[in-house]
Structure prediction request, 119 residues.
Amino acid sequence: MITCKRVYNDKNGTNEGYRVLVDRLWPRGVKKTDFHYDEWNKEVAPSTELRKWFHAGGGDFTEFTQRYIKELTDTPEHWQPLLLIAKEQPLVLLYSGKDEQQNNATVLKAFLEKQLTHC
Prediction:
């Protein structure tokens, strides 16, 4: 099972699975010592260029999704370890974006779930 959780809504999550922060930047105002996470995987996050393009209002979420999936497809070494974890235990993708529906974690979740069906 793979779930997404916003960092600011869930700072003290425990015993819910393997928790991975999937943002390239550390969330503002969150102390590393106070936040429960198992891994910070910057490499699975959208590239800096894609993140800046999307947040600057350069495009819509559909195009962002297509570009991000292309980045993921080109770098399986960054997300394949997450598949192994998801096969063994619940995987929680942590993100800091304000939009709880349209963010990189939701795209990554759908991408990983699709990959799991092919395994």
